[in-house]
Amino acid sequence: MTVATAGRRPPAGPEPAGVDNRLVVGGATLTWRTLPLPVLPDPGAVLAHAAVHALTAARQHAVYGTELLLSAASRVDAAMRAELLDAGFTVSVLDDDGAHPSVPARPRAAEAGRLWLLTSGSTGRPKRVGHTLDTLTTVRADQPDRTWLCPYAPGTYAWWQVVTLSLTQPGQHLVVVEPDELDDWPTVAAAHGVDAASGTPTFWRRTLYRDAAALARVPLRQITLGGEPVDQAILDQLRDVFPAARISWIYASSEVGASIVVHDGQAGFPVAWLDRETPGRPTLSVMDDELVVTSPFHGAGLAGPVRTGDRVQVRDDRVLITGRLDSDEINVGGSKVSAGVVRGVLAEHPAVAWARVTGRRAPVLGRMVVAEVVLTPAEHRDTAEAALVRWCADRLPEYAVPRRIRVLTEIPVKETLKSDV
Fold first, then answer.
1. Closest listed residue to residue 127, CA positions, set 116, 136, 111
2. The total number of structural domains that make up the chain
3. Structural domain range at position 397
4. Are residues 149 and 192 in contact, defined by beta-carbon separation less than 8 angstroms?
5. What's the CATH code of the domain at 370?
6. 164 occurs within a structural domain
7. Contact between 94 and 69 (Cβ < 8 Å)
8. Which of 116, 200, 273, 341 has the fewest beta carbons closer than 10 A?
């Protein structure tokens, strides 16, 4: 990649503590220190065409404190580019030939140290959420040496979580996979000694479905899940493959940061954590079946209790996050059905690799429950629907049993590694 070397200003502070950590990206092995430092506009929105371009922008921000919004180029359409220009950002497409800027009609002064994230947009148009490198750095205690896999799209909250870990902690090396490497990431990971990996439940389900044997050859000691509801089925499947690994799930968002971390191998978090106030840690509560978080890692302007839009259910001594409020509840003839609960029942069936549950219009009842599933390769598709309906009927109220089950041949996944369940 040909870029100019930044030299317009003195560094905002010392080099990050992880500057000598190893980076494997685009087939090359580098370190944070050996990444080039591009000259980037300030304030700037950087649209990266490859992982290495995103990493150079991240290091440039860490060293110089520029105001930065970073995203994969593919996530920003023409309308969003126009919106960023109107907000005073110089929009630069960063590729192997350097930065290609578009200058705003009304330039403005930069806000030193500000980082902007684009939300995933799963419930509408992506929004900008303000952070700093400090609020995105939520792992501060010393960590055992790890080589982490980073499969996330550049600039997302999950991407920054892995990147800040490597930037700020010595011994936290990084292997970054591009979108066209995702289908074969276990081979890449095994070749470079990856022993820790973070991904969405869809990411892990898709890997298990495509080649569980290849996944088992990766020497994972730490497995992390987040970004979507985490059910017991995926936790148990990963435990079967990696009985000695620590398996964690994290609830995090651009708005409230990393708020829940669970290491006990169970879906949900303990009821005892609700309304527990601990200095420096998020406070969790429930209001009208919605998770509410008061977090020290919140985005700009989001201090105090933040309604997350995620629905929760208390079951025995656990609090389960089942899905988004605007899509999880299905009204079937006046009876309320949680799509997340039905999805969890389907996911527990040994033949189901992935499931999505939604509502569909129906006469008399108004809505009925329908599902899409991807089956494990050994399952005979001709008998799958009837068997799954019986499975659900034995475990759910009659009105919650899916009336239609469609079998897909591949687990759908978006660039965010989610399938919008």
1. 116
2. 1
3. 326-408
4. no
5. 3.30.300.30
6. no
7. no
8. 273
